Amino acid sequence: MPVSPKQARTLKHRSWVAFLVVPPVVFMSLFVVYPILSAFAYAFYEWQGLARGEFVGLANFREVLFGATMAPTVWNAFLHNVYALIALMIIQNGGGFLLAWLLYKEPFGFRFHRVAVFVPVVLSTIIVGFLWKLFLNPNFGIINQALYSVGLDSWAKPWLGDSSTALGALILANAWHFVGFPTLVYLAGMQRIPSEIIEAARLDGTSEWQLLKNIVWPLVAPSTTILFTLLFIGAFNWFEIPYVMVGLDGSPFGSTDVLGLVFYRTAFGNQSASIQNFGLGSALATLIFLFIVVFASMLTLWLRRREIQF
Amino acid sequence: MTAMATSPASRQPISFAFLAQVILIANSFIMLYPVVVMVLSAFKTTGEIFEHPFALPDFTQVGNFAKVLGETAMPTYFVNSIIVTGVSILLILVLGTMAGYAVARYESRTNTFILLFFLAGLMLPLKLAVIPLFILLRDLNLLDSRWSLIVTYTAIGLPSAVFIMAGFLRSLPSELEDAARIDGASEPRIMWSVMLPLARPPMAIAAIQNAVPIWNDFFFPLVFIQTDAYKTLPQGLTTFMGEYTTDWGMLFAGLTIAAAPITLLYIALSRQFIQGMTAGAVK
Questions:
Q1: Contact A124 B53 (CB under 8 A)
Q2: Is pLDDT of A290 > 50?
Q3: Which chain A positions have a beta carbon within 8 Å of B283's beta carbon?
Q4: Inter-chain residue contact B129 with A38, CB threshold 8 Å
Q5: A55: which strand partners?
Q6: Residue B108's pLDDT band (boundaries 50, 70, 90)?
Q7: What domains lie within chain B, and their CATH numbers?
Q8: What is the CATH number assigned to the segment(s) A62-305?
Q9: Which burial class, exposed, middle or buried, applies to B60 when counting CB atoms under 10 A from its CB (0-12, 13-18, 19+)?
Q10: Which of A185, B154, B171, B247 could disulfide-link B91, Cβ–Cβ 3.0 to 4.6 Å?
Q11: What integer pLDDT is reported at residue B1 of this predicted model?
Q12: Is B129 an interface residue toward A (CB < 8 Å)?
């Protein structure tokens, strides 16, 4: 049967569209969708090294959450992720909001300050981690050297070797690394507020604090939503800074252990023990993943509700 | 940018403006000083670093840099980082533009499905699927090669590129296409010669947004690469730092060399970097 010109055109047209769409979709399916779906499946099996063994149902999940050997480590690490999340929300996102407000007023030198605050953001986390590890060195790091030089010898500490300060040091290093990101996202949010609103409030004699609290903060709510969601995801995926600064074991004494380190140790082995367990690793990854998806969507929905249209 | 006379700062009391300046200067100092100390220390011997950590060095003393570039594998790591980042960005742009163009310019019932498909990829942290990815790459014989990183980074970066490209291409007027179509141009020709030349700005944003995290990534090389010859800069840096633990002059020189390219590029193109890296969070 001869093909009508219209059919030929649509056929040609369709194959052209398919040519555009199929390669990206196949690529995504193979390297994103398939691995993520497999990650769930793997958690239900026992593994011997790289070989998949028997179906064990929920045994891996039970071991991760309630097992005598693994659960205490997991919960200890989870708690540190929560601490990091709360501290970074205040220091990183809160600090970013205040810095953005100062930059928004375009004071003298604001262009310089805007570029400066973003410099650490472009550096690799590895560089940031090593740099601060050297700076926090108990004997020769510049932090303690600076304390000695101003006579505060008693304040000097082995920051990363003391279990009461190590996690705090990691959190501060992370805040140094990323505070520029919320700063500039908030700044962009503030610049979108119609200037009449702020002018009008100023004419009414609103105080600086009132302006910030009652006008600017509610109007940058969309930026807050996205920044808090990103921080949430980042805090429960936290790996690089702890890995570089304190090592795989979350030393000293597990005081800096986080879920990312536990996952890596479980799945790819501790260098000293060289044990790897893909079943337990997959179960832990699945749990972290579900936790992030459920809570991040709840957080997003809750934060969205307080956004105002203007 | 508003003129200074009408800027929001003009009606502030002096004391507030002063406090703001103090905070901003202190903050910029905290942001930049560690980087400055890193560079200065790279010109010092380990003994000088320990004894005079804050002193200015003799800038003609470039022995540490010569040693890092001449005696270590750092140049190899550097080349690997350039290859991996470059090829990944190229693939992200090609595949992202293809999907973005189809979704934006052709009506189809499957468009919503395709967008949702990529949206899911945007939200899911692939880091947590690293075990199956590891096994998949082993089965494809890609493990411990640069390709293992390239396909992973392309998969991570593709969704954001699709959204950036689709968003921009959708905003182009259809008169452009229709005029070319009436002139008898084929669909591929319209895409290549009419539409894509206009799409360079979003391509630049998609490229920067993805290039910085790819260049800086450390997690996937840590899991996928064992052979020293294939290591990227961030991963190679851990090997290097492990080898020279006590030679602080070398350590700071290594960090400085690793940080230099992206920092200099950022200083030269700060506006594009900021725009690109915050593109996902600023609408």
A1: no
A2: yes
A3: 222
A4: yes
A5: A45
A6: confident
A7: 13-65 (no CATH), 73-243 (1.10.3720.10)
A8: 1.10.3720.10
A9: exposed
A10: B154
A11: 40
A12: yes
Task: For helices B74-105 and A5-28, give the axis angle rounded to 10 degrees.
Answer: 140
Inter-residue long-range contacts of A171-174, CB under 8 Å, 24+ positions, other chains counted = A171/A83, A171/A84, A171/A87, A171/A88, A171/A91, A172/A91, A173/A128, A173/A129, A173/A132, A173/A241, A173/A245, A174/A84, A174/A88, A174/A92, A174/A238, A174/A241
Q: What is the mean pLDDT of chain A?
A: 90
Yes or no, beta carbons of B9 and A23 under 8 Å apart:
no
The answer to whether A86 contacts chain B (CB < 8 Å) is no
| ipTM greater than cut 0.90 | no
Return the minimum-mean-pLDDT range out of B11-20, B103-112, B205-214: B11-20
- Look at B35-44, B112-121, B137-146 and tell me which has the smallest mean pLDDT: B112-121
CA distance B32 to chain A (A): 7
Interchain contact, A105 vs B7, CB within 8 Å:
yes
Segment A17-41 shows an average pLDDT of 92
Task: Give the 3-state secondary structure of residue B19.
Answer: helix
Provide the chain B residues 164-193 that lie in CB contact (below 8 A) with chain A. 187-188
Q: Between B101, B158, B188, which is nearest A28 by CB?
A: B158
CA distance B230 to B222: 11
pLDDT at A69: 87
User: Between residues 196 and 235 of chain B, which touch chain A (CB distance below 8 Å)?
Assistant: 212, 215-219, 223, 233-235
* Predicted pLDDT of residue A301: 87
A33 has a pLDDT exceeding 60: yes
Check residue A300 and give its pLDDT: 85
List the domain boundaries for chain A: 62-305
CB-closest option in B106, B114, B234 to A126? B234
Nearest by Cα to B160 from B84, B82, B93:
B93
